[in-house]
Design brief:
Shape: elongated
Helix content: 25-40%
Order of helices and strands: HEEHEHHEEEHEEHHEEHHEEEHEEHHH
Number of strands: 15
Largest sheet: 4 strands, mixed
Distance between the termini: 58 Å
Strand content: 15-25%
Structural class: alpha+beta
Length: 331
């Protein structure tokens, strides 16, 4: 009977929900709460966290840019998850929100109360509900990360937020995507044929420092280029509108396909075999040895015998040492 009750509980338990605005599902780092913010702040404080309030709206291009650049970079996502309880609000929404004054307001009334005029707007709160910083509009990732540091480092008692941001360079990662000569050119027919080359698909965004490093370091090594030559390689932006044919023969857009593949970080590299099935993926930029090895892992078919990439790397490293070959894991 005990196991029957457990099974019944699992069967009727709702599926996990993700924070969203309209039909747009937000990155998993955002949380769904009862929107009773004093309680949320108290719970966050127990883990040394503070509230981060995000205001967006349906069809907001700058909100989309923020989500597809800053919130696809692992360092920023990790920082938000470690130091904040991030809660999303619809600028014109109707959910009820309880503020620190005890009053209950709808989302749109709440936004007006906090003088949120446009989207995206992010508010950083201290443990008592005081707004210590207001991030108005889109910040590129390097400035957005620095803005978060104002709360992470508890700087509100030392200098104004504006003074803190003056020390942050205006320019950071490249505002355009980097090109490589081996990228497939349009039309993007990625359909696979038995016996043909495997496929590597790279997803990137603008203002992505790890993406820049990938092109500066990872794609410039002879061993990496040799491994890449065994693949067809396609590159898309997470917001790309170009049409493509997927490895299994369907027509879609780059943006829709990225959502379907649940790409959470950039750069992400997804590998497909000659049947059009995904066989492996990287969801961050790795150092050159590991990056080049990922292509070898798929091209050699090693993934079929060894499902753990780290064990494959360990075996390769040991073999290189035994043969006297120099091993550089970081450079």
């Amino acid at each position: 009977m005990r196991w029957l009750l457990i099974a019944l509980f699992i069967a009727v338990s709702p599926a996990p929900t993700f924070a969203q605005i309209g039909d747009e599902v937000l990155p998993p780092v955002f949380v769904e709460t009862l929107l009773e913010l004093p309680d949320d702040a108290a719970q966050a404080a127990k883990s040394g966290k503070r509230l981060l309030l995000y205001f967006g709206q349906v069809g907001c291009p700058y909100c989309k840019e923020l989500m597809q650049t800053s919130f696809t970079q692992k360092a920023i996502v990790d920082k938000v998850g470690k130091h904040f309880l991030p809660i999303a609000f619809n600028l014109f929404g109707d959910r009820e929100v309880t503020w620190f004054d005890g009053k209950v307001r709808s989302e749109k009334e709440f936004a007006r109360f906090l003088k949120v005029q446009f989207t995206p707007t992010l508010l950083l709160l201290d443990e008592k509900g005081n707004i210590i910083a207001r991030i108005n509009g889109y910040y590129p990732p390097h400035r957005f990360s620095a803005a978060l540091d104002y709360s992470v480092k508890r700087l509100e008692g030392k200098l104004p937020f504006a003074e803190h941001m003056k020390s942050v360079p205006q320019t950071g990662a490249s505002a355009t995507l980097n090109e490589e000569p081996f990228f497939i050119k349009p039309p993007f027919n990625l359909a696979r044929k038995t016996g043909g080359k495997p496929l590597a698909v790279l997803f990137e965004t603008r203002h992505c420092a790890p993406c820049d490093e990938l092109h500066k370091e990872g794609f410039k090594r002879d061993k990496t280029l040799a491994a890449i030559s065994r693949f067809d390689v396609a590159r898309f932006s997470l917001s790309g509108r170009e049409t493509l044919t997927t490895p299994d023969g369907r027509s879609t857009t780059a943006e829709a396909w990225g959502r379907e593949l649940k790409i959470s970080y950039t750069p992400s590299l997804v590998f497909f075999d000659d049947s059009g099935s995904e066989v492996f993926r990287l969801e961050a930029y790795l150092r050159p040895f590991h990056f080049a090895s990922s292509f070898e892992y798929v091209a050699s078919g090693a993934y079929r015998k060894e499902p753990e990439f780290q064990r494959f790397l360990q075996s390769k490293a040991e073999h290189m040492k035994e043969s006297g070959e120099k091993l550089e894991l970081w450079k």
